[in-house]
Amino acid sequence: MTEILERKKFLIKERMDMGRLQEVYDIFEPETGSPIGAAVETAFWWVKALKFFLDRDMLPFCIRISDSKGNVHISLCRCGGCWVPTTVKNADGKVIASFHKRQISLGGKIDIFDGEGHEMGAITGEWSGKKYLLSDSNGGLQGEIDHISSGLFKDHFTSVDDYEARLIGDQNFAPILLAAVITIDMLYHEG
After folding, report:
1. pLDDT digits (tens, 9 = 90+) for 67-114
2. Which of 170, 28, 57, 187 is nearest to 123 (CA)?
3. What is the pTM of this model?
4. Residue 19 pLDDT
5. CB–CB of 46/54 below 8 Å?
6. How far is CA 16 from CA 13, 114, 184, in A?
7. Across-strand partners of 57?
8. Greatest CA span in the chain, whole angstroms?
9. Domain total for the chain?
10. d(Cα 87, Cα 100) in Å, to the nearest integer?
């Protein structure tokens, strides 16, 4: 595992850029505030154009999560709208998880499957959309994600969001936790 994936806590801040056509998130070490990585969307021109007309949760996306040196460690892609699973790959391009959004749920629920299609766990959200729990297939808590307030203006007049993620269980869930934060933002807090 690499340094970014060996951590237990992450602060993820979405960049604010008026008229942006690309999602960019900065990843920090919460205690010191030092940057440890970034998540950057790569989008075709037609996807960027459709962002003017459609909610972003209806569009395909591909986001690469890299460390502070620019080395890509995780990529997550969705090839269609919100009903299509999001695929998570490691640095070698191997599928390590897929996120399947439940279309009807109070607070949001995403089922997680491993590369072979076996159930791996779930992400469940509170009705307020402010807290999400990452659990394994046995129901054991592996991580927590808090959608934190960024101030009145940012919260109510932009779609820019900040998150704090804590890994509680197995360190192997670190890439899943980071990918979960970005997926939650794209599915539930964009648009």
Report:
1. 999 999 999 998 876 678 999 999 999 999 999 988 777 667 899 999
2. 187
3. 0.87
4. 62
5. no
6. 9, 33, 18
7. none
8. 44
9. 1
10. 9
User: What secondary structure letter does DSSP report for 180?
Assistant: H
pLDDT, tens digit, for every residue of 105-161?
A: 766 789 999 999 999 999 998 877 789 999 999 999 999 999 987 665 555 555 678
Report which residue type is found at 172: N
State the burial class of residue 37 (Cβ atoms within 10 Å of its Cβ: 0-12, 13-18, 19+): buried
At 46, which helix (H) or strand (E)?
helix 45-50
Rounded CA-CA distance 173/78 in Å is: 20
> How does DSSP classify residue 52?
T
The separation between CA 172 and the C-alpha centre of its own chain, rounded to angstroms, equals 16
Domain encompassing residue 131: 3-188
Q: Which two tokens stand for residue 16?
A: 């604010």
Q: What is the pLDDT of residue 138?
A: 94
Residue 63's nearest CA partner among 191, 163, 187 is 187
CATH number at residue 51: 2.40.160.200
Positive or negative: CA dihedral 174, 189, 191, 150: negative
